[in-house]
Amino acid sequence: MGAEVWPMLHEERSDFVDYLRTLTPADWDKPSLVEGWRVKDVVAHLIAGAKSTPPKFLRAMIGAGMSFDTMNAKAISREVDRTPDEFVSALESLVATRTRPGTALLGEIIVHGEDVRRALGTPGTYATEHLTVVADNYRKAGAPIRGKQRTKALALTATDTDWSAGDGAPVSGPMLALVLAMTGRPVGLGELTGDGVTVLAERQKLS
Questions:
Q1: Contact call for residues 174 and 167 (beta carbons, < 8 A)
Q2: What is the β-pairing status of strands 154-158 and 169-173?
Q3: Where are the alpha helices (DSSP H) in 38-164?
């Protein structure tokens, strides 16, 4: 990961903090696009991730019996007991941290940001360069993202920037919609076209 990822991560975190300031108190308890997670659960997850390090992550995984779901549930439980203002302050205090792996955390803040924004009816916009970095990473990712499995034998092409990857059945659409589909979020599938969309849709539930 090049040093250029850090400004991207910090910019996206800062933008999401600004967005969180616009939420009403009721918004924090509304469901996000992540099954079983409220908006505040997603933000608690992002706070936990921004505090993590590779050694802490490994210890947490061992403590969770090597289950990502159990690890995430424990981390959220530690961070979720906050008021809206406390959530905003906590994430704001972590904006400039160089949390490794930075590319993965850049993807987290964008994709989980959309889990919140789209659930509340306010999709976000992101720099093309940021989305390209995330797409390149997620297309090759194994568990728990499983982007490699979802995009196998598919030719992905962005319609809003000069990006393409893979070979096989074509899938075209906005870069953000491609990224969301790579991570198992069907919300963007309606923006995609091509013979491979059906295959990609069938792979959304991979676990």
A1: no
A2: parallel
A3: 39-51, 54-63, 68-79, 84-92, 102-117, 128-138, 147-151
- pTM score: 0.92
For residues 191 and 171, the answer to whether their CB atoms sit within 8 Å is no
Q: Can you state the angle between helices 68-79 and 54-63, rounded to 10 degrees?
A: 110
pLDDT single digits (tens) 115-172: 999 999 999 999 999 999 999 999 999 988 999 999 999 999 999 999 999 999 999 9
Residue 109 CA to chain centroid, in angstroms?
5
Number of Cα atoms under 13 Å in the Cβ half of residue 4: 5
Separation of alpha carbons 104 and 96, rounded Å: 15
Alpha carbons 175 and 190: distance in angstroms, whole number: 13
